[in-house]
Amino acid sequence: MQQTIDGRAAPSEHCYPVFNPATGAQLTTAPICSDHQLAEAMRTAAQAGVAWSGNEPLRRSALRTFADALAGDAGLLAEALTSEQGKPLGEARQEITAGIEILRAYAELSLPLDVLAADGPITSQVGRQPCGVVAAIIPWNFPFSIAMSKLGAALLGGNTVVLKPSPFTPVTTLLAGALSRETLPAGVANFLSGGDDLGSALVRHPTTRAVTFTGSVASGKAVARAAASDLKRLVLELGGNDAAIVLPDADPAAVAADLCAIAFRNCGQICATVKRLYVHASIHDQLVGELSWQANCLKVGNGMTDGVQMGPLQNQAQLQRITTLVAEAVDEGAVIAAGGRAHDGPGYFYPPTVLTRATDGMRIVAEEQFGPALPVLRYEDVDEAVTRANNSTFGLTSSVWGTDPHTLRDVAERLDTGVVNINTHDVQIPGAPFSGRRWSGLGAEGGIHGVLGLTDARVLNIAGQ
Ligand code: NAD
User: Fold this and answer.
1) Which atom of ligand 1 is nearest to 215's Cα?
2) Which atom of ligand 1 lies nearest, measured to the CA of 318?
3) How much is the pTM?
């Protein structure tokens, strides 16, 4: 497994181990990018940008060809994804397909060009121009689809890219990089690998003109600080602590089934999933009963095994975090209704867990847990639930569940997040902007919104026409 720099495999002197979260055993080794290789990737990206930025038709056809090559190896990519990330193979296949479809959608998008004051003496053409070299930095929960979303937006916009996966999940990305060697012009997309320090070096590098980052709030703030001195353009997709409010007229069994499927998908490691569940007192006990039953029915295991619905957490530190947050909540008065104890044996497994008698002050409620432990909070009054849901430094997505369309709409209008859902959660319609409020991010991804964040406006004024 090698990095891709200037359209070629880049052998590395130093490597680090990558682990399979389902077994805890070493899966493979991944390269550590050297200073010289980083310099080479930046140099080649800047050079490749000269021709690439001026040829939109080439960019479209190259994106299509790259997507076709990825589709040809989709099975291999999905298996690699499950092995390094842990998610069930079916979910891995969905992620690979989604990533390829995102690239294909970018290949069909047109960059906006507005003509203003067409009747006056001066006509203004308002278009977009690329930022230049974009540093793309990826987390470990959706390594492939997030990488493809950033690549598609940056490349269609006329930028060139130096991309770095999470050190926990480099395999699928480096395989995708190998498939880019024959399908993208040399240098337009470079795939590196290394630790957090490599991410930091990418952001600080003087050649980088824009950074598109997905990850935690703490790292996002560090990226923003590092980018500020050079006023690099920034897109930050950060954490979420999504509230879901279940109204008194909701059907507890139906809502519990939906919430169980959503909250424990990808082992709860999704920025935009349900992480705090506010349930009206009148249906609280019934909903907790249904949800716990559903959670206990989920088949947990190695994502490569048929029928498994939830895999392990992706890494040991995340398992430790969930174990600690649940133990702390129980110490503070929460009650375990399902799950609640890490599995013995190898792998980073933790069962789907439902906690009742949770309160807003507990860390498992106030912070982003990012794992399969869902706190349920009782409320008496809908206004109170809305206030509690909005009382967060995060503002990524949220949802409201019930029957009466007017009440659903009224509550939805008052939820203060970038995306608000009615009777659903964790949905992304292609082309819709995905952006968080407050500490959940800066700028947006998704369709043309992703391109706008990685390009600047360009105005051409023409007199006398
Ligand atoms: P992380 O912040 O630890 O790491 C993300 C990436 O940033 C990795 O590639 C890492 O090597 C790199 N990195 C770390 N420190 C850096 C620095 N100072 N400068 C530059 N790069 C640095 O996040 P994670 O643990 O990999 O991912 C989980 C987090 O990502 C969660 O908070 C989750 O909510 C968030 N996330 C957000 C979205 C979104 O679209 N809003 C999507 C997925 C994940």
Assistant:
1) 30
2) 25
3) 0.96
